[in-house]
Amino acid sequence: MKIRFLFLLYIIGIPLVSAQIGSDMRNQKVDGYRGIWFELNQKFPYGDKYSGGLGTYTAKHIPLAIYSTEANKTFFVYGGTTQKDERHLLCMVGTYDHNTGLVSKPTVAYDKQEVDDPHDNPTILIDDEGYLWIFLSGRGTKREGIKLKSNRPFSIDSFRIMEKSEFTYPQIWNTNKGFFHFFTKYTGVRELYFESSLDEETWQPTRKLAGIPSGKDNRSGHYQVSNQFGDGEILGTFFNRHTNGDVDTRSDLYYVQTHNHGTSWTTVDGNQIPIPVDNIENATRVIDYHSQNKNVYVKDMGFDRVGNPVCLYITSGGYEPGPDNAPYEWRVTFWNGTEWTTKNVCTSDHNYDMGSIFIADDVWKIVGPTENGLQKYGVGGEIAIWVSTNSGRDWEKEKVVTKNSTLNNAYVRRPMQSKAPFSFFWANGNPDKLSISELFFGDFSGDVYRLPYTMTEEWQKPIKVY
What we know:
Elements: H1 2-12, E1 37-39, E2 43-44, E3 47-48, E4 51-53, E5 65-68, E6 73-80, E7 90-97, E8 102-104, E9 107-111, E10 122-126, E11 132-136, E12 145-150, E13 159-165, E14 168-175, E15 178-186, E16 190-197, E17 207-210, E18 224-229, E19 234-241, E20 251-258, E21 265-266, E22 272-273, E23 285-287, E24 295-303, E25 309-316, E26 328-335, E27 340-348, E28 356-360, E29 363-371, E30 382-388, E31 396-400, E32 408-413, E33 424-429, E34 439-442, E35 448-450, E36 459-460, E37 463-464
Antiparallel strand pairs: 1-4, 2-3, 5-6, 6-7, 7-8, 7-9, 8-36, 10-11, 11-12, 12-13, 14-15, 15-16, 16-17, 18-19, 19-20, 20-23, 21-22, 24-25, 25-26, 26-27, 28-29, 29-30, 30-31, 32-33, 33-34, 34-35, 35-37
């Protein structure tokens, strides 16, 4: 019956892609860049705990874009959908060609069918032969994580499934020893794990990295952000702690690293530690924010020029949105070679405002929605660039990138090896009600481009809006 129906549509001239709603759209092209809109549906006087255009969500999905010098293209992924009033999650992949200044029609790398949740958003990496890998986040044991590989190098046309397994919040790195994957397992709480592969296809058994019990029921939980230094000489991760497994109590800041692809782990100053990290007061704890009654929302991390780790995060008085939990302070904590240093950068109006940190010698920059948007106390706002010219010790606002936006801009992401004008990218949306969600990219000179919401050609020019 389904085949007859599709054949009838073909005969009468209706494009078959319009008949794919509800059927698998995997490896099909879509005629435009349309981000997913989402709300958690936890309501408070100042709105949902988080909602809006979340195509580049979450901060714990890393990376979402990567620049290839060989292809001179930026490949990027996001959570998309088919049309403006739909919440059908499609794991999308697109390409920006730096030679032509054009973007391709995006491809549906994977169709999440009845799922509308951007917790299942994808991440992307390129292997040494140029094949694109996309890791699609699962959601605990309810939905498996999926590893995809492109059928041709430097091509987004089609992908095949390589493996399905349990992982959430994938963070994938291509090192000089193969792939390394930080991720989360839902074991009743959110605990941190990792796995590695020397040949990119055969994976070593997963190992637990952290699960610190606390609270009256002695339960654990963590969120993390990770990165690699060089070709994987260091793999490091910062993470917080959830008292009694409750994500709304996220506090404290920890850091661990490995110099040998996960065989052993150390503190920042090189002292070896056993894993999993399983007690509150230990050598990996950087700051005790719990005793300060501060929540900690990790956003991004990087390394300075000699391999010292740097973390970007927001602290606040609690999980509910609105002025009662202000100030929402953007902070950087970094190792200066002998001790941890923490500096305040600025404030914004929401825990889930998310930006990225860019580190180049002594000049560090942060790009994020630090300015109030039209939907105040909602996720996102207007995007600004903050700069430090002395390795994170002092910060000032360099420029405001977006102005008079009708929809809040959110989740500004940093591509690996980024190249202008695709230096960072994000999605917009209305956190107060269902809206369209567009995707943008920009550079540090202040130029901003909107990816075409509707495309009539295979390759089209992005629209310069600022």
